[in-house]
Amino acid sequence: MTAVLGWLCRGGVLGIFAFLIFGPLANLVLWAVAIQWYFPHKLPLTYGLRYWGEVFKPTSDAFASLGTSILIAVVTVLLCLVLAIPAGYALGRRSLPGRGLVLLIILLPQAFPSVAVYLNIARLFYMVGLNGTIAGVVLVHGVHGLVIAVWIAAAAFAAVDAELELAARNMGASALRTAITVTLPLAAPGLMAAAIFVFLESLDEFTGTYFVGVPDITTLPLMMFTASLAGNYQIAAITALMLLVPSIAFMLLIERFLNTEMLAKVG
Amino acid sequence: MSDRRPLSLLLVVPALAMVLALFVYPLGYSLVSAFTSRSGEPSLDNFVKTFDLYTTDIVFTVVIVAFSTMLIGIFAAAIGGYLVLGVHPAAVMFLRWLYRWPLFIPFIVAAQCMRTFLAKNGMLNNTLDTLGLVDVAGLSGLLDWRGIIVTFVWKETPFVALLVSGAMAALDRASIEAARNLGAGGMRILVEILMPQVTGVMTVGLVLAFVTMLSVLSVPIMISGGSPTMITVDMAFRVNSYSDYGVANALGFVSYLIAGSAAWVYIRRNVAGEGAP
Prior knowledge:
The complex is a heterodimer.
Chain A: H1 2-33, E1 34-36, E2 46-47, H2 50-56, H3 61-93, H4 99-111, H5 115-128, H6 134-158, H7 162-170, H8 175-204, H9 207-212, H10 220-229, H11 233-253, H12 260-264
Antiparallel strand pairs in A: 1-2
Helix pairs in contact in A: 1-11, 2-11, 3-6, 3-8, 4-6, 6-8, 7-8, 8-11, 10-11
Chain B: H1 5-34, H2 45-85, H3 89-98, H4 107-117, H5 123-130, H6 145-169, H7 173-181, H8 186-214, H9 218-223, H10 231-242, H11 245-275
């Protein structure tokens, strides 16, 4: 009897929890496939994919913003990797004077509320003509992406077994050749994770783009924002789903990176 | 070894230059701008105007973010505790699978989800109505300060819970088993044995969540359009409507102070922790 009660209790709590986690997502999915839905009806009156056709029409704004978003995210990843690989190598593998200070400066963008910084970047970019350009948005995304990229890259390089490098050096390889043919491939999985992180962060970024991208750059999040405030809930829901799918796929994929031992070291 | 150091520095210079040019410089610029009047002289005019117009919003922001942080802490501790102490493998596995879903969902998508879920005619009210618990006609929806808090907690709890449960799982199980053998209940073990050992991780997670929530612009706009609102919205408004960078930056300075006070709590904790045996 107590066992049954216990399971009822557990099931109830977990059920409520599951509803709170999935309810908002389910509501979004419903809006994405609804054609007509208004108060006081609890469910959409008519379902269909008409709005999907509108969003994925090659001439639509949403389709164009998807292209812009992906272009910006790819360039941001390249920029971050080019900067983070040498920096991560130096921080994770070599002795560096003022290591703490360097790390502190690179981590700063994560430690400050960013809105005031963004609006001043926008003001500065305006003076040099970077406002409303892809390059401007990439730079803003890059600063934030760099935090995570350097952090992961440093951890990835620090985890490479120094004896393997030593073996390569003993066999006559130069320092540069060792770094490129031994250290870099061994750190590659970590760097890949960093790249995915930066890609997602750029794809999802809203606030910086909002200030720096106006009026010419519309990324997917900005498109979604405008559609939502204009009351186009179907368009907003479909664009939101396009942002949601990579986030959730990443969450499910990343489990092996987010293992307990790594997390125990934080803090 | 010392001859390698210049090369090491060379390797970090590009990344460092990027952060200095695109973060530290604008940050300094915002500080200077906050303390400069429109005529270009050093003054506190911007702050006088800021507190004149936005004191309510500043308090509103602090209360929302602080309250959300507290709820996130409680939920994260509960989830972490159950994952470590739960005795039913099926329930533990289900919870482990369940709680992570919002982890990487962007704020703007979370806001759009909640905008429909918490509305008067949203799924929350409709479900409660169908179950006969409330009458939807008499409800107003939660799209105000409560909606902002719900969105923040929904989005940020998984991150802190992930950190906390990781730290709890790494603890020595002997003390837990000992307490259990002596008859301590789950709640007591969580509060008296697990929590004191993971305060460091918990504080890091909560400070990061606190600063993140302080920087979100989309959620307050999309969840509650009206007044009072959060200061991020006010900053955007001052710039977009009046090109008033002075007041916007003064508000920015206030947000640094709020974030700084949270970080200070963290640092003080750490110093105290090192002093203790």
